[in-house]
Design a protein that fits this description.
The protein has helices at about 5-20, 30-50, 55-65. With about 70 residues, the chain is mainly alpha-helical.
Length: about 70
């Protein structure tokens, strides 16, 4: 599966989950939504990067809004 396809699926799942949680503001801050956001952000960063780039894992996690 290519990165673009994975991103499309994750974003679709995220959108569906957000629509389901729309009526309950507490539900918008669930761990699964936070994890989806981090995964989507990380994949976007990796997709835009050059495979030969030297990047530190901590930098990637911070850019993806993942706490370390």
């Amino acid at each position: 599966m290519k990165t673009k396809a994975v991103l499309e699926q994750l974003e679709r799942i995220h959108q569906e989950r957000m629509l389901n949680a729309h009526h309950d503001s507490y539900d918008l801050h669930q761990p699964d939504l936070d994890a989806l956001d981090c995964a989507i952000n990380l994949l976007k960063i990796l997709e835009e990067s050059n495979p030969n780039d030297s990047v530190k894992v901590k930098e990637l996690l911070l850019a993806a809004n993942c706490e370390t």
